[in-house]
Amino acid sequence: MSKVTPATRALTAAGIAFTVHAYDYDPDADSIGLQAAAALGEDPARVLKTLMALVDSKPVCVVVPSDQEVSMKKLAAAAGGKSAQMMKPPEAERVTGYKVGGISPFGQRKQVGTVIEQSALAHDQVYLNGGQRGLQVRLRPADVKGLLKAVVADVLA
Questions:
Q1: What is residue 2's predicted lDDT score, i.e. its pLDDT?
Q2: CA angle 127–131–133, rounded 5-degree value
Q3: Is the pTM of this model over 0.85?
Q4: Rounded Cα distance, 71 and 73, in Å
Q5: Which pLDDT tens digit goes with each residue over 25-77?
Q6: Closest Cα partner for 134 from 45, 5, 17?
Q7: pLDDT confidence of residue 29
Q8: Is the pLDDT of residue 1 over 70?
């Protein structure tokens, strides 16, 4: 497994301090984020999942704790839209350039607006997908917010 991905290159280019953590990815897991948290021995609230959604038909990246679900109504409001829905996996892969299970908010093919769940900022360090299945990066949530110019909002169901 390569530990250099478009995500890690984007973080390095931006001067963001991060560490890389590989784990055994289980493609049959009910929840990829929860499986990553268990494999890393971390609290699921610190292991964030990257989801791709459509808000008023425009792609939006949403980052939430792996043990939580997104409220589409709150996501739409946070992104300044009227309605939101999850993006279908093939479309998410096309937009981001990553495979589902390896989608990172960093280094996407075309950077889109990002919304990060406000509770994620309560931690000193969080984990996010590093751009491939079985690879996480650990960094400060403030750096995530700053690099992605993310909107911070309560988007939990």
A1: 66
A2: 85
A3: yes
A4: 5
A5: 988 888 888 999 999 999 999 999 999 999 999 999 999 999 999 999 999 99
A6: 5
A7: 86
A8: no
Query: CA-to-CA distance for 75 and 44, rounded, in angstroms?
Result: 21
Instruction: Phi first, then psi: give them for residue 86, nearest 5 degrees.
Output: -70, 145
The 8 Å CB, 24+ separation contacts for 15-19 are 16/139, 16/143, 16/147, 17/139, 17/140, 17/143, 18/137, 18/138, 18/139, 18/143, 19/137, 19/138, 19/139
CB 115 within 8 A of CB 151: yes
Q: Find out whether 20 and 13 touch, Cβ atoms under 8 Å.
A: no
SS (H, E, C) the chain: CCCCCHHHHHHHHCCCCCEEEECCCCCCCCCHHHHHHHHHCCCCCCEEEEEEEEECCEEEEEEEECCCCECHHHHHHHCCCCCEEECCHHHHHHHHCCCCCCCCCCCCCCCCEEEEEHHHHHCCCEEEECCCCCEEEEECHHHHHHHHCCEEECCEC
Digit-coded pLDDT (tens) for 125-140: 999 999 999 999 999 9
Instruction: Label residue 51 exposed, middle or buried (CB < 10 Å: 0-12, 13-18, 19+).
Output: buried
